[in-house]
Amino acid sequence: MIKIAVDLHGGDNAPHIVLDGIEMFLEQFDDVEIHLYGDESKNHIQHPNLKMHHTTEVITMDDEPVRAIRRKKDASMVRAAESVKLKETDAIVSAGNTGALMAAGLFVIGRIKGIERPALALTLPTINDEGFMLLDMGANADAKPEHLVQYAKMATIYAKKNRGIKNPTVGLANIGTEDKKGNQLARDTFNLLKEDDSIHFIGNVESKALLNHAADIVVTDGFTGNMILKTLEGTANNIFKMLKETLMSSAKTKLAAALVKKDLMQLKNKMDYSEYGGAVLFGVDGIVIKAHGSSDKKAFFNALKQARQSAKEDVTNLLKQEVTHE
Predict the structure, then answer these.
(1) Of the residues 26, 110, 231, 235, which has the maximum number of CB atoms within 10 A of its CB?
(2) Are residues 183 and 265 in the same domain?
(3) How many domains does the chain have?
């Protein structure tokens, strides 16, 4: 039985969205035991595969991450992370404070031996519906070339096991596709990736090509990765905002909007990265899934499904064996 620890109080819409997502998940999967950490008075689910663990503290979005992890010992997020550390559960899923969850991964669960820097990875949508994995998205603002190579190796294993891609392609985010482009970090990383036979490296990729599925995996430092993510997210949101304003501007456009409403919703869903699940914190000795802070029940369901698949494929031990050669 796979066991997933869930932070009841993580996210903008907790706890009801978390509970709705869990109910949806338990209706579909009977091989998972959910260990729910939080205020038991907030839980309305009665299910044989759900175990409630009462906690008395909550880490908020405004809390300073490291301080909160160290001081709020009975917080739902901390207790859930401890269960992964003690091997009582296989994974943790939270939609809470991203920095705090990364700190819990590092300081409570602990890093995999041999992994120098953790990386936060997210699968983003592409025009062809295949999606691509971007990392690092902000776990480390600075990185060395060898860190980016480790990111590529970890993401390759994950893409094979979680997304069923036999030989995932890896691209290096850069300002041009030519081999010698970019700053010193990019040029040095390019050379290391090119020499590594365990990675299907296809070269540099520009940000304008990402949504066209330039590669299955795109690696970069956390500063650049977070900028790419926020730019894509902001652009998509503003395009739909402008489109809505245009369609609501007159009786004629309102009529047109009514006719294409279903198609527009399909397009919006296609560009929603929560359809792929949450972000994964690579490099820690357990499965850590960060659901989006504004997740609805379907997005949280997808994050739980992602945790289940990772545990089922024993991704953490695969990373230990193949990345660190243990």
Answers:
(1) 26
(2) yes
(3) 2
71 vs 184: CA distance, rounded Å: 40
Helix runs in the chain, H state only? 16-28, 65-71, 76-85, 98-103, 145-162, 184-195, 222-247, 251-270, 297-312, 315-323
- Strand bridging mode 169-173 / 200-205: parallel
With respect to residue 278, please indicate whether it lies within any of the assigned structural domains: no
Residue 108 sits in the same domain as residue 130: no
Residue 294 corresponds to which tokens in the numbers above? 């504004």
Separation of alpha carbons 138 and 118, rounded Å: 10
User: Which candidate, 186, 120, 188, places its Cα nearest to that of 158?
Assistant: 120
Residue 18 belongs to what domain range? 1-115+283-326
Residues 139 and 12 in one domain: no
pLDDT tens-digit series, residues 264-292: 666 666 566 566 678 999 999 999 999 98
**Integer Cα distance of 282 and 271 in angstroms:** 24
Q: Token digits for 227?
A: 């900028």
pTM strictly above 0.85: yes
CA distance 157 to 316: 10
Among candidates 272, 278, 293, which has minimal Cα distance to 92? 278
The pair of structure tokens assigned to 110 is 């602990």
* 160 touches 152 (CB < 8 A): no
The domain boundary, picked from 233, 248, 273, lies at 273
| Span 63-86, pLDDT tens digits | 999 999 999 999 999 999 999 999
Final residue belonging to a domain, choices 233, 253, 273: 273
Compute and round to an integer the Cα radius of gyration of the chain: 20
